Amino acid sequence: MTKRTVFYLVCVILLVVPAAFIAQASTPPIQSGTPVEMIGTVTDIQSPTDIRVNDTLVKLSAVSPAIPLQIGVTVELKGELNANNTITANDLEITDKSPEEVQIIGFVEAIQGTLIIVGGHIVDTSTAERKVEIALGIKVKMTARPAANGGWAASKIDDNDDDDDDDLQPGQVILIGTVRQINATIVTISNQAIDTSDNPTDAPLFVGVRVRTKIQFTNGKLVAITKITLQIGGNDDDNGTTKATEQATPDDDDDDFGDVDIVIEGPVTAININIITIYDFDIQLRQDDDVLKDLKIGDLLRVEGNFQRDGATVIVVAVNVAIVNIEVNVNSGGGGSPPAGGGAPSGGGNGGGGDDDDD
């Protein structure tokens, strides 16, 4: 063996060994017996007790499906993850649920007829079963699927009495859904590509597993602000996919918003001359609007306005703008700080113009 050959072999070893360690470090070790829930497609039937769901081997020794399984059907299963990347199913049934179906928990930040905005996400509620009266600032839990024209189409809207996350802020949502794709630090849940760079997960992820995380829009992309965790239990509907109401929920147009398309309250995240951004929505103000004189990033605004479309881009043209929730502390001497806490939008403010109202 020549010196050159030895040199090449050493180089190959130096390249391969670190790569192996990196791959091992990036994949959390699987704890045998870890509970998992999964929705996916049967891709292979190897025996009466061994099938593949999304190409993951599932052992059925503990369950007997009510009807014979076929390749291509969608199943929902609960079981335990084994150290060899297989799943032992404790419960399995054919379902009409879709891997695209999610649960979204967040604050109602804007209302336009049957469209609402929750955490910057546009949600069509026209065919949803409503178990709570939708109002600006309330916290809701929705079952939804991706809408054909973007955003979400809700099939069920409820209050959020059963969720114990008290740290959720306007502009954020809790997303519970099925992993569809994993590409390095980008994890796709339903059709939402989420950047997990700042909060890498410790959970063993694979296509089809149900997970939960808290997300928000940052610089135009969805970012995980908590680690993705496995979701066990808490399904919105134990009897399959929630059925939508047969007729669209009527829009009584009995709000107090006046002759405008949308009302939105939230913190200002960007200012570009007379274009401001709230919850990833661009809002156009008059260039001579008095609000712009003292407006700062972080100020809470209430905006009443109308949608204006420019090709594929939609902006909100403001009709009335008001700064809300301003607290003045004469002893602080600091001034200019945004209100602390960032709780639910107040729903207050009359949107009557650009002047601040002192309560």
Structural features:
single chain, 359 residues, mainly beta, OB fold (Dihydrolipoamide Acetyltransferase, E2P), 17-stranded mixed beta sheet, 5-stranded mixed barrel, 2 helices, 8% helix, elongated, disordered N terminus
Can you describe what's shown?
The protein has 359 residues and is mainly beta. It has 3 domains: 34-94, Beta Barrel (OB fold (Dihydrolipoamide Acetyltransferase, E2P)), CATH 2.40.50.140; 102-230, OB fold (Dihydrolipoamide Acetyltransferase, E2P), CATH 2.40.50; 262-323, Nucleic acid-binding proteins (OB fold (Dihydrolipoamide Acetyltransferase, E2P)), CATH 2.40.50. The protein is 8% helix and 42% strand. The chain has helices at 3-26, 291-294, and strands at 34-47, 50-53, 56-59, 74-81, 87-94, 102-112, 115-118, 121-124, 129-130, 139-146, 152-158, 172-183, 186-189, 192-195, 210-218, 221-224, 229-230, 262-272, 275-278, 281-284, 300-310, 313-323. The longest helix has 24 residues, at 3-26. 31% of the residues are buried.
